[in-house]
Amino acid sequence: MLSQRQKKLIASMANKKFRDEYKLFLAEGPKIVSDLIVSGMKPRLICAAPGKELPKVLVHFEIIEISQKELDSISFQITPQQVLALFEQPKYTINYNAIKQELALVLDGIQDPGNLGTIIRMADWFGINNIICSKDTVDIFNNKVVQATMGALAGVRVHYADLAEFLGTYTKSCSNPVYGTFLEGNNLYQEKLLTPSVIVLGNEGRGIRDNIAEYITDKITIPMYSGSRGSESLNVGVSAAIVCAEFRRVEAYSK
């Protein structure tokens, strides 16, 4: 059974202020919790309700047994998933020497938690180690972001920085291309895509800000299929997946 103090701590994870103060974040579900642990994340508290057998990795930790009713009362999910845990927030520093030798993503003002979570999950799938976010991008430790990553959070280093400052330093330290996704740009499938490089993805509504666009060397776009009825744009998570898949395809088959 959880103490009132523990319940209060879990509830406080809804607020970024307290997530930052306690240096913690919440994850829910047997798979996500176990994946984070296997990837090296440190759990501060784990609680579980009766149900199916728990993942074996959890037997190495102290688990607070709670009722389904208690889980329902503390969970942030509409349908609670048996296991809930608090993890210590990982802290990363931007390593320019490493980033300029690989493919990295830059996110300019992504606001939707689902979009950010999807992009992190996609980055993990394509072996992208670093994502640099503008300071107004949604918090990576927002519960909806954590759940949308499906455990991929531990596989990608997510940084928050002044993007103009980051790109200024990056472009001065190397001659790598800086690609940016725009509605009007060079056809992604006809462009010479080079790695190492960075790919800039813009806000869901306004796109890439002008002061960030100044650092972009190559504007790219995903061409609309000739039979399309003319959708206004693609979801930023979908766009990120298409662009990164093409970069990895070119990288793999041009050798």
From TrEMBL:
Ranges where the MRM3-like substrate binding domain occurs: 8-85
Keywords from the named record: Methyltransferase, Transferase
Pfam families cross-referenced by the UniProt entry: MRM3-like_sub_bind, SpoU_methylase
Domain tRNA/rRNA methyltransferase SpoU type: 103-244
Xref: InterPro entries: Alpha/beta_knot_MTases, MRM3-like_sub_bind, Ribosomal_eL30-like_sf, rRNA_Methyltransferase, SpoU_MeTrfase, tRNA_m1G_MTases_N
Any one GO molecular-function label of the UniProt entry: RNA binding
Single Gene Ontology BP annotation: methylation
Family from the record: Belongs to the class IV-like SAM-binding methyltransferase superfamily. RNA methyltransferase TrmH family.
Protein name: RNA methyltransferase
